[in-house]
Each structure stands twice: as structure tokens, then as C-alpha cells.
């Protein structure tokens, strides 16, 4: 054979996506990378037109010879129709031709479709550089994505911390202000319950602040258990709490809820080898008392009702009464000191 001295292996080492075909268009040798796209034994012996549809600058070549030394556009005729670019040249005196192929802009799809690696490309192929850039870009994007997720998580955690009382896990005054503002702007009907613990100071004074912390955590648990998921419980002072009952303004039911909370607060709270005893006084108001309710006014009125509970003997709940409380404490009394 005239091409006996021709070494196709060396040629395809430089052009792993290449193939060699004779002047009749019959494929004689397939490069290793092209062999990963289609098994070599299924290509050798077939004509170029059986394996590819070939266009020369947009014109189909049909079953005619592959144009030489010009840009070609090819697609596999079966299987994954990977778009390819190529150019064919003749091997002088050998009755053979080399068709060198590349992926062009479809390289990323091809790498994914055929699980190609850098070893499937010639070392001088600029596609390798592009793949490295794409890989680097993907790594940067993934790292940026993870960083953004961490930052978002940190932001959420910081916002949650900013709205949370660290000792009890309840909402704090800032959160209460936000919730009340949102509900009032939305025209939501709700009740506001102001709770102040009775005898809490004596717990701190006799047993220490650690005992007081234990009591506050127990109180928080009780309040959460006595409210619903869309209600809010906030610790707004050392031993002061505000409960906001969403769309719950029935006075009788509110008083029953308050009585139940007080009864639970009076249960002894174990601490080390003793128990802590407290109670609670509550003042209640609802949006139904106001033509145009405001947070400051409702908190003030619930506080007046709370002072009424303290004045009447503690361990009880008082519903705000505009006729009684708007003039201040009854009978000119001074609000008692909370203990």
C-alpha cells in the first residue's frame, strides 16, 4: 500500500479528535477521543457521509467528497447529534485524507455528554485552557454561592439574635415593637396582655440570680405553652412580659387564659434543693377599645390595668376599662412598686 510508511497513530496523537479516510470517503482510522464518542469499530469501514452530515459554509455536501482545506460543520447522523467543526487535508501520495475535528462552542456539552477529560485533548489544544477557565469559573461561582449562603445564614441568625431575648429564647422589646407596628398597619385585631411577676425580687434576693434565671426560663416555657403559634410572647424587662394574641379579642376567653397562666405560675419551681414561689399580675387590653389603636396607647393602657391587678392584691388579671383607668389609678392611689 502506498501509505505503508504513514503512521496514523502519530497523526492522531496530535489530533485525537481526528480520523483518516481514503479518497473514496471510507474511514480507515479513528483518533482516540473520537473513539470515545463513537466506538472505532462502528466507524471504520463506513463512509464519511454515513457517519456525519457535512456542511461547507452552510451548504450541504450530500454524498460528495469532503471539501478540502475549508471550514466544515458536521453533526453525527445518529445518537447524540454533537455539533462539530472540522477541516480536511489530503496526505500527498497516500490516497488518504485527514479530517481533524473539534467541538467549537459545544465543548462543554460534549465534555458532559461523553465524560471527556483533559487527556482526551491534544496538549496544544486551546480548548484545554478554556476548560480550565470554565472549571475555575465554576469553582468560583460555587464558592461564591456557598459564601452567599453562609452570609445569608449569618444575616438571618444575626437578625434572629437581634430580636431574641438570650436568656429565655422569647422575643425582645425590639421584636414586640416590630410585630405591633406590622399588625396595626395591617388592621389586625388583637389583644395585648402585660404580665409582671409577683415576688420575683425576693427570689433573686434570697436565692440569687441563678435561681431567678431558672424562674424566668420556666415562666417563658409556660407562656409559650399557653399561646398559639401565631401569637407572640416577648420579655420586655427583667420580670415583665408582653403577650400579643393574634385575632383573639374575646374578653371572657382572654380572662380565662390569664387565669390559667397565673395558676401555672403559682406552681412551685424546683431549684437545687429548694423551690421558688412566684405569681403573676396581668393587665389586658384589645384593639376593640380604640377607634384608631396605637402601640404606645395600648401598652400604656395594659400597664394601667396591670397596676390595677397589683393594687387589688396581685395574682390576678384586670381587663382595661376606659371609664376606670383613663383617669389614672382609682381613688388617687399611687401605682404600687412591682416586686
TrEMBL record:
PROSITE patterns: GGDEF. Residues 188-322 form the GGDEF domain. Coiled coil: none annotated. Residues 316-339 are annotated as: Disordered. CDD domains: GGDEF (cd01949). NCBIfam families: GGDEF (TIGR00254). PANTHER family: DIGUANYLATE CYCLASE DGCT-RELATED, GGDEF DOMAIN-CONTAINING PROTEIN. This is Diguanylate cyclase. It comes from Celeribacter baekdonensis B30.
Amino acid at each position: 500500500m502506498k501509505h505503508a510508511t504513514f503512521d496514523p497513530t502519530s497523526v492522531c496523537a496530535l489530533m485525537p479528535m481526528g480520523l483518516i479516510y481514503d479518497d473514496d470517503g471510507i474511514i480507515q482510522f479513528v483518533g482516540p477521543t473520537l473513539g470515545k464518542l463513537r466506538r472505532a469499530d462502528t466507524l471504520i469501514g463506513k463512509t464519511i457521509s454515513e457517519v456525519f452530515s457535512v456542511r461547507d459554509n452552510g451548504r450541504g455536501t450530500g454524498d460528495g467528497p469532503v471539501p478540502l482545506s475549508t471550514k466544515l460543520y458536521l453533526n453525527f447522523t445518529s445518537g447524540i447529534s454533537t455539533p462539530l467543526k472540522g477541516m480536511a487535508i489530503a496526505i500527498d501520495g497516500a490516497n488518504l485524507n485527514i479530517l481533524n475535528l473539534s467541538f467549537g462552542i459545544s465543548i462543554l456539552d460534549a465534555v458532559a455528554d461523553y465524560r471527556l477529560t483533559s487527556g482526551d485533548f491534544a496538549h496544544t489544544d486551546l480548548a484545554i485552557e478554556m476548560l480550565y477557565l470554565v472549571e475555575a469559573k465554576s469553582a468560583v461561582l460555587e464558592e461564591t454561592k456557598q459564601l452567599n449562603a453562609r452570609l445569608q445564614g449569618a444575616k438571618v441568625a444575626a437578625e434572629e439574635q437581634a430580636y431574641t431575648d438570650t436568656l429565655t429564647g422569647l422575643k425582645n422589646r425590639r421584636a414586640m415593637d416590630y410585630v405591633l407596628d406590622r399588625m396595626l398597619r395591617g388592621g389586625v385585631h388583637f389583644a395585648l396582655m402585660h404580665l409582671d411577676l409577683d415576688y420575683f425580687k425576693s427570689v433573686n434576693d434570697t436565692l440569687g440570680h441563678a435561681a431567678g434565671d431558672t424562674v424566668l426560663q420556666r415562666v417563658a416555657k409556660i407562656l409559650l405553652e399557653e399561646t398559639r403559634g401565631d401569637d407572640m410572647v416577648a420579655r420586655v424587662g427583667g420580670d415583665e412580659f408582653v403577650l400579643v394574641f393574634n385575632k383573639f379579642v374575646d374578653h371572657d376567653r382572654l380572662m380565662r387564659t390569664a387565669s390559667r397562666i397565673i395558676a401555672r405560675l403559682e406552681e412551685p419551681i424546683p431549684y437545687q434543693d429548694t423551690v421558688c414561689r412566684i405569681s403573676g399580675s396581668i393587665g389586658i387590653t384589645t384593639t376593640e377599645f380604640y377607634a384608631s389603636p396605637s402601640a404606645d396607647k395600648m401598652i400604656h393602657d395594659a400597664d394601667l390595668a396591670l397596676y390595677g391587678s397589683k393594687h387589688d392584691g396581685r395574682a390576678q388579671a384586670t381587663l382595661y376599662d376606659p371609664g376606670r383607668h383613663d383617669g389614672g389609678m382609682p381613688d388617687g392611689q399611687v401605682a404600687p412598686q412591682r416586686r
